[in-house]
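User: Please work through this fold.
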Amino acid sequence: MTWFFKLDVINGPLPLAIWALTLVAIVVLLIRRPTPAWLWRVIAAVAVGVGLGIGLVMWVNATRLFGAALPFTVGFWAPAGFAAILFGVVSLWERKAWRKVVAAVLVVLALLSTTLGVNAAFGINTTVGSLLGVSAQDDIHSLPEPGPTTTASGPLYQSWNPPADMPATSKVGLLSGDRAIPSTGGFKPRDASVYLPPAAQVKNPPRLPLIVMMMGYTGSPDPTFIVKWLDDLAAKNKGLAPIVIVADQLGFGGDQIGGPDPTCTDSTKYGDVPGYFNTDIPAYAVKNLNVSLDHKDWTIMGYSNGGACAFTWATHHPDIWGNVIGISPDEYPGVEWRDEAIKTLYDGSEAAFDANLPAAGIAANPGAFDGHLAVFTVGGNDPIFTPGAQRDADLAQQAGFTTTFYVVPGAEHVTGALDGGIPFALDLLYKHLGLSAP
């Protein structure tokens, strides 16, 4: 079934086929001799469906259920989907058995079409597996042995000469089973993924920089968005790229609405999330991957919810993370539900909550961020996240980070923000780490 979970649900033929079949079912049910009763049923179903869809979109945007406003095209898919579903429901009253069957099929197809349409509007879940919360990746069967502890003199873009047998492509896989990253503090993450660029797969690989990345809420530790840009950069830079671990800061159920949001903290409810990222993952990387042992080459990176964790841990652990990248980040962990988070995860202590903020980490580590790179990006059409991302950038600049704040033209909070922010940030990081010429 791995092939099924790898099917593309955004640009592949599957969504097009489902949408086409849905339209066919609608047309078939509309081809009949109209009667006043039938017309009124159809008009009422469509009107109620459109109203429900519009009302749901307005409610979600008003309550900030997803943190940001819904993508524009959701305003089409929700009303159209509800209308099609209710049209199918009222068509179950048809007298002919075959029309009842078509009506039942339409209900199912309309549900699938709406789900695929809304998912495409967000653009985050690109495969059947990621949409269902099941990893579509293959397990990684072998990891290159860590090389000597010495590193090359000078930047890698100058000193590294790839061998003739270097693979042309990267290797990406799931760290599961006996290769899973152990979590020692009670936190139960979903399996992480690893990205190994071509330069990491040769017989005597250079020690490469490390990136630990997190996706947003709701979401999965899916490497898709960073991999395509790293592959592009590696192809232009002699196969060089950071080794990347895409890890889970949410835990099981993090891909579901109403799922866990541990707010990047150690709590009785979710376990020690900071310990997993700042102790367990670094120890695993040093033991199992050919990463640089100089922490100025280590980057903590996150999108949205993950961006809040990234900046928090970069400020609390400057000895571990030499750089930080926030792609459309939450301003700080728990910003969207501060009062409830204090009550449920911090035993009602506002002081404990505030101690987990980036500002607290900066205050505890004065002067520790000189030479640390900080890059924050946000979509130009993302008014909800822009002010917080700007405040984070200002805070980082004041703390001594070498800071860049970039607005992705025309992007909202989802795919455009990722596909605009990630390559911009990686280009700066490459130059900072000596993977490409300044």
Observations:
- Residues 2-122 form one domain.
